[in-house]
Structure to design on (568 residues):
């Protein structure tokens, strides 16, 4: 009998598990190294390169940008939401739970963005609070869904990056 | 003392590039920024060429070069000379190519930003705007009676580095298509230089070591900034390179030809450079219809000369006997030791002495100041004089 793909929530679970196992077997894979390169275009517009992809980063018009794309903090908020969504789909699918609909809605506030804008010196411009709400319709009872959501939040890479201290090492190279 | 076309035994020469003085670098930057015309830049470069010549003549070099003072590096200078080639920054190239990741990898290995690295990139059909090196030769000829060596980028180097998928394929669908035009351009230049009296034309093909030491790597590598893309099949690449060079030189008599192959001398950090013996390349080098192999032999990373034992006296060798990237001035004993080793495989009249590579492969990153480079040349000359004296 020919093996058929098992798709759940659009994921081939067997293939996903095999891909994860392959990655896990590679030395150093646990640290999941990543790289990005940001090129200045003009004004407050930049192009970010990651692997073979690229995307624009711009500021909204009211902050002197051309509003052609989200700004850095908006990407970060979107990244957090997408990371939570990714984790939820992965975790639910691995338990065989069908998701009929889902959406993550986020809101944030920053401590004092005026320090970034050079208007004030007290406080910091980073996120002070992020509220992330998952809306979901799935074929599972409430307790199971909550359990998957808790696991998703606790194991989200972006959540852990925002919630923990990250060792950040800025460097400068002046090109003649 | 044996003589070699009027030259003494063990002629001393250079590989090509010489450190650029600060005023020349300033003029080069202005030229690249469009603030200096080609003529204005060359007027400044004339002075630097004569200074480079003076260093060589005072050291006692037998075959001189113009120090590549007019070039920003050994291959991208063709942008000035050819229509259809643009000096594109990696930043510009990354906008057009699919394989952005391999360019990013190159930048990380260099620890450099995309805006600072440029590649001569074919954007249209090639046409000569002016000679590649004939004018450089003519200027030097007016100021020295010594034989002159003119370095040119090899056809394989140019084909690999200048053809960028996503940018060049509208003019030349494949790298091989581009190579046909490059062969014609280089061949015409070789003949013109010969007819003008140039004694020695050297074709630079450093990427050949990338072929054998990075075998199987299809993505672009940063071998001497050539940004070279390969098929990943070393045999295919070496056959291609040989065919191209032979097409350039075939039947052109009356000028000595050479091919220079090194492992990269653009950094003092050995760990970013290639290393390995010439052994995998020797059969290919022997298949090239050129007179002389200009090789780096001064450092351990080059391996042993014994790799030539199966090809005794088959070609001349431009024996690299000093390291352009080190501070120490090599001793006479060290240099003579290298020559004695070479004498096992080459006849005395087949051995020329030179540094492993140029002293300023990239104008902005010389490997040594001119004074040290001059002392290294003087060390070679001293060793050559001693060797000649022992022949009697």
């Amino acid at each position: 009998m020919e093996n058929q793909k098992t798709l759940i929530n659009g994921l081939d679970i067997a293939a996903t598990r095999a891909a994860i196992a392959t990655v896990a077997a590679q030395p150093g894979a646990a640290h999941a190294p990543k790289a990005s390169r940001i090129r200045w275009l003009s004004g407050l517009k930049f192009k970010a390169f990651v692997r073979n992809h690229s995307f624009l980063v711009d500021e909204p018009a009211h902050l002197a940008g051309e509003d052609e794309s989200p700004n850095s903090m908006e990407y970060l908020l979107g990244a957090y939401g997408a990371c939570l969504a990714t984790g939820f789909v992965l975790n639910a699918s691995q338990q065989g739970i069908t998701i009929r609909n889902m959406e993550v809605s986020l809101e944030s506030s920053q401590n004092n963005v005026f320090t970034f804008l050079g208007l004030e010196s007290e406080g910091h411009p980073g996120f002070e609070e992020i509220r992330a709400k998952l809306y979901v319709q799935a074929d599972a009872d409430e307790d199971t869904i909550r359990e998957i959501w808790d696991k998703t939040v606790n194991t989200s890479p972006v959540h852990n990056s925002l919630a923990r201290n990250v060792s950040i090492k800025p460097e400068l190279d002046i090109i003649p | 003392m044996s003589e070699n076309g009027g030259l003494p035994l063990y002629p001393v020469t250079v590989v090509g590039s010489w450190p650029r003085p600060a005023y020349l670098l300033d003029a080069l930057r202005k030229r690249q920024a469009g603030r200096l015309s080609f003529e204005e830049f060359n007027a400044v470069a004339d002075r630097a060429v004569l200074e480079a010549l003076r260093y060589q003549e005072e050291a006692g070099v037998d075959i001189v070069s113009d120090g590549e003072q007019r070039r920003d590096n050994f291959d991208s200078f063709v942008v000035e000379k050819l229509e259809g080639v643009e000096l594109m920054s990696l930043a510009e190239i990354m906008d057009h190519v699919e394989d952005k990741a391999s360019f990013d990898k190159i930048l990380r290995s260099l620890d450099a930003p995309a805006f600072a690295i440029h590649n001569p990139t074919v954007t249209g059909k090639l046409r000569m705007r002016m000679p590649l090196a004939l004018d450089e030769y003519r200027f030097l000829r007016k100021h020295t009676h010594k034989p002159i060596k003119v370095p040119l980028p090899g056809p394989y180097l140019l084909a690999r580095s200048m053809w960028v998928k996503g940018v060049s394929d509208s003019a030349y669908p494949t790298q091989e298509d581009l190579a046909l035009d490059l062969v014609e351009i280089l061949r015409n230049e070789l003949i013109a230089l010969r007819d003008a009296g140039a004694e020695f034309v050297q074709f630079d093909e450093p990427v050949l070591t990338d072929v054998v030491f990075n075998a199987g790597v299809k993505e672009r590598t940063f071998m001497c900034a050539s940004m070279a893309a390969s098929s990943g099949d070393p045999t295919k690449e070496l056959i291609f390179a040989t065919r191209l060079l032979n097409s350039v030189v075939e039947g052109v008599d009356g000028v000595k030809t050479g091919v220079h192959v090194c492992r990269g001398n653009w950094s003092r950090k050995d760990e970013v450079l290639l290393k390995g013996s010439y052994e995998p390349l020797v059969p290919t080098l022997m298949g090239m219809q050129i007179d002389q192999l200009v090789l780096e032999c001064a450092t351990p990373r080059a391996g042993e000369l014994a790799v030539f034992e199966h090809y005794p006296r088959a070609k001349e060798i431009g024996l690299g006997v000093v390291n352009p990237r080190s501070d120490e001035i090599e001793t006479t004993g060290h240099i003579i030791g290298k020559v004695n080793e070479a004498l096992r495989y080459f006849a005395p009249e087949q051995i020329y002495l030179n540094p492993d590579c140029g002293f300023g492969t990239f104008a902005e990153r010389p490997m040594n100041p001119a004074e040290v480079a001059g002392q290294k040349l003087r060390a070679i000359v001293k060793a050559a004089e001693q060797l000649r004296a022992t022949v009697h």
Summary: The helical segments of chain A are 13-24, 72-94, 142-155, 157-163. Chain A has two domains: 34-69, 71-164. Residues 72-94 of chain A form the longest helix (23 residues).
